Structures are given as C-alpha cells and as structure tokens.
Amino acid sequence: MSKTMAITSVIAGLAIGGMAAYVNSPTMHQNFESHTKIVVPKIEGSELVNMRASMNLKRSGQYELYFLTGNLVGFNTAGNYHFDSYGLSLMPTSAEQVVPDGKKLNLMETMFSQRGMHSMEDLKVIRIGKAQTILVAPRYSYLFIFAEP
Questions:
Q1: I need a labelling partner for 148 at 20 to 30 A (CA). Which of 4, 19, 55, 56 fits?
Q2: CATH code at 35?
Q3: Is 55:31 a contact under the CB 8 Å cutoff?
Q4: C-alpha distances in angstroms, 79 versus 53, 60, 63, 102, 145?
Q5: Is residue 55 scored above 60 in pLDDT?
Q6: Could you tell me which residues come within 8 angstroms of residue 119 by beta carbon, excluding any fewer than 6 positions away?
Q7: Cβ atoms of residues 133 and 125 within 8 Å
Q8: Which domain holds residue 94?
Q9: Which stretches does DSSP call E strand in the chain?
C-alpha cells in the first residue's frame, strides 16, 4: 500500500509541478502582425514608406520575426525572447537580409535591411485592449495586432 501511495504521490507531484510551470511560464504562444508607415525625412519634404512586420512568439521561448518594406526589402530573424520588468527582449540567433534579385537598394533600404540596425532589447510593451500591442524601441514604435496562427 505504501509503495502505491508513494508512486501516486510522485506522479501527482510531477503533474501538478508541470502544469504550474506551464501556466506560470514567462513565455507565450502568440502571432502578431503590423502594417505600419514610416516617415523618412528627405532634403525636400519626406517620404512615406509602407512597412509590414510579423512576429511569432512561441511557448518554447523562441521567436521568428520579419520586417519588409513595400518594395519587399527587409530582414528575417529568429532567436530567443524573454519578458522582464523592463519589457520584451529579443535575442537573435540568426538573421537574414531580404532583397529581391537584381534590386538596387537606396540608402534607406540598405540601412533598414542591415543586421543590427533595429534595437531588440528592452522593448516596452503597451497593451491597447485585447487585440493590439505597441512595441516601443529607442528609435521606433510598431503597432501590432494579434493574428491567427
């Protein structure tokens, strides 16, 4: 009887501990999309650049992210993420420049598509209702909406 009780107790403890870790995990499974416009100053006025971004945060603590301009220039990145008291930090483990074949890049596109041009640490997360989130970095902000996986 005591052996059965001990085994049952261990199994119950493992199950409860696993569920508690899953529920209290500082990770999430959520897809976000953004259709943002960036104002780029020019010598004579400014230019409005269409941006599209998609971010997939996985329960495993990994993420996938891409940013593309309306001309399909940008970058893909993947890595690990974590939340802390400062906000969301994305730690890339891989990054890839996205440039259509034969496309001659202007200065803005060249800078935008370079690895390291986008701050991904200590992003402030501002929730707006249930379906919208603003990610604020030192040089930019993006309005993301929740997307279906």
A1: 19
A2: 2.40.128
A3: yes
A4: 16, 11, 6, 29, 21
A5: yes
A6: 137, 138, 139
A7: yes
A8: 27-147
A9: 30-41, 46-57, 62-69, 74-84, 87-98, 124-128, 132-136, 141-147
67: which 2 tokens? 């940013």
Q: Please count the other Cβ atoms lying within 10 Å of the Cβ belonging to residue 126.
A: 12
Write out pLDDT tens, residues 129-148. 888 988 888 777 888 888 87
Does residue 124 form part of some domain? yes
Q: Which residues contact 89 (CB under 8 A, 6 or more apart)?
A: 81, 82, 83, 120, 121, 122, 123
Give CA–CA dist 56/90, Å, rounded: 11
The one-character DSSP state at 74 is: E
Give the per-residue pLDDT at 5: 64
According to DSSP, residue 19 is labeled H
